Amino acid sequence: MSSVRRLPPLRSMAVICALGSSVLLMTGCTNADTARSSVAEAAQTTPATNTASPTDTGTATATSTGSASPSASASMTDDQAERKALVPQARVTWDKAADTAVKEVPDSKLVDLELKRTSAEATASTGSPSPSTPNPAPSQGAPEWEAKVATSDGTVHRIDIDAVSGKVFRTQAEDQDTDDKQQLADLLKKATQTPEQAVKAATDKVKGTVTHVELDENDDQKAIWSVDVVSTDSWDKTTLEVDAASGDILNQHVDRD
Question: Burial code of 48-85, b = ≥16 C-beta within 10 A, e = fewer?
């Protein structure tokens, strides 16, 4: 009797356990399905990651980081720009200006000649007009040749020549002491090479337009002609030292400023 009474509870427990297992299994399956569904939904709603090929990536990078190449032509310096503006304005060449200058003072020789812009001082009424053909001074800033000529005793006269018309508009004796005159007189005796010969030696070496010729003395106390030649391609200025006795090129320097 007692064993019969225990059986129903055991069977009931078995049934209950079976039912419980089924419920757990169904719950696990439901959770798994739910997880898989969530993953699928996430995959559908998340933006796609860029999977471009290495070639495509390189193209995109080059497009975003590329920059314009620098300008091929570098800008000129102030001095180069000034030479470019001034030199073409001078219609009178250095040799014509030199010839004009020495004619203003009898028995004189050229010792300095430079192309520059006419200063306010030159346009003022100082000095004397040309004894041969008095002419008005060009406007301030216009190109002129400022020349200096000297007689055998070292006396210097300054001659201002309009670089467009070629006419002398002022001549003036320089202030000098006895020592300065003697030093220049000695230098003239050493300079057996003419300025024309010195310029030819310089321009044979460097092509361009002559803008300055000066009789001077170098560090070795040797008489030289200093010649400035401007390139009309780069507008650089080359200064050449020419031996005033032999005509040899002693030194040269390019000014690119």
Answer: eeeeeeeeeeeeeeeeeeeeeeeeeeeeeeeebeebee
| DSSP element (H, E) containing 224 | strand 223-230
* Largest Cα–Cα separation, the chain: 167
Cβ atoms of residues 85 and 143 within 8 Å: no
pTM: 0.69
CA distance 137 to 144: 10
For helices 195-205 and 94-104, give the axis angle rounded to 10 degrees.
170
Q: What is the pLDDT of residues 1-44, one digit of tens each?
A: 444 444 444 444 444 444 444 444 344 444 444 444 443 444 44
- Going by C-alpha positions, the residue among 140, 70, 86, 130 that lies closest to residue 104 is 130
Handedness of CA 182, 183, 185, 186 (dihedral sign): positive
